[in-house]
Each structure stands twice: as C-alpha cells, then as structure tokens.
Amino acid sequence: MLTGDTIGAHEAARLGMVNRVVPHDNLMAECEKIAKKICLLFPVGVNMTKVSVNRALEGMRFLSVISNNLELMIHFDINSEPEQDEFNRLATSRD
Q1: Per the structure, how many domains does the chain have?
Q2: DSSP-derived secondary structure for the chain
Q3: Are 46 and 38 in contact (CB under 8 A)?
Q4: Cα separation of 60 and 69, whole Å?
Q5: Average pLDDT over residues 4-16
Q6: CA distance 32 to 40
Q7: Residues 6 or more apart from 48 whose CB is under 8 A from it?
Q8: Residue 60, Cβ neighbours under 10 Å: how many?
Q9: Residue 17 covered by a domain
Q10: Do the Cβ atoms of 4 and 90 come closer than 8 Å?
C-alpha cells in the first residue's frame, strides 16, 4: 500500500481477493447469473449468512476501515496536487 503499486484483476483473483474475473462486456450477464442463483436459495438462509458476515466484519472493525478508506479516496479525488496527479497518471497507466 505504501508503494502505491496496484495489481490487476487476474492477480487479485490469484491472491483470492476476488472470486472471478470476467471481460467487461460479460460483467452484467455474470452478475445476473449469480443473482439468479442466489434468488433460488432459501431467503432466510441468505439473510442469515449476510447478517453473520456483516457482524464478523463489524467485529473486526472492517466496515469502519472501509469507510475511512472511502473518505481518503474522496479526499484524493477532489484535490488536485502535483503528487496526486502523478499518482493518478501512474495508476491509470497500469490498467
């Protein structure tokens, strides 16, 4: 994080940070496929799973960490400093 290095989608999948990588043109179709699969499950089970995961994340303070990071991202997005402009240029050139 301190180096500003970014990783691509395939590397994120390899590291287990995401469960799959799909081409952009297939993204909505893949989302709909997953949503349809979830809709076939017993609603109480889906809800309890979501509650359990959220409580675990709250217990680890993960949700507040995400909130803090979003705040920092907003700060970077609304400020234009030479360092930020260079960071943004490098980040987008790696994609």
Answers
A1: 1
A2: -TT-----HHHHHHTTSSS----GGGHHHHHHHHHHHHHTS-HHHHHHHHHHHHHHHHHTTHHHHHHHHHHHHHHHHH---HHHHHHHHHHHHT-
A3: yes
A4: 15
A5: 87
A6: 12
A7: none
A8: 10
A9: no
A10: yes
Task: Please name which of 21, 19, 27, 1 lies closest in space to residue 9, comparing C-alpha atoms.
Answer: 21
Query: Is there a domain that residue 83 lies in?
Result: yes
| pLDDT tier at 71, thresholds 50, 70, 90 | confident
pLDDT at 66 over 90: no
What is the span of the domain harbouring residue 50? 24-93
In a domain, 33, yes or no: yes
Give which of 73, 75, 49, 53 is closest to 63, Cα–Cα: 53
Neighbour count for residue 76 (Cβ, 10 Å): 14
Q: How confident is the model at residue 62 (pLDDT cuts 50, 70, 90)?
A: confident
19 belongs to a structural domain: no
Residues with Cβ within 8 Å of residue 63, at least 6 apart in sequence? 54, 57
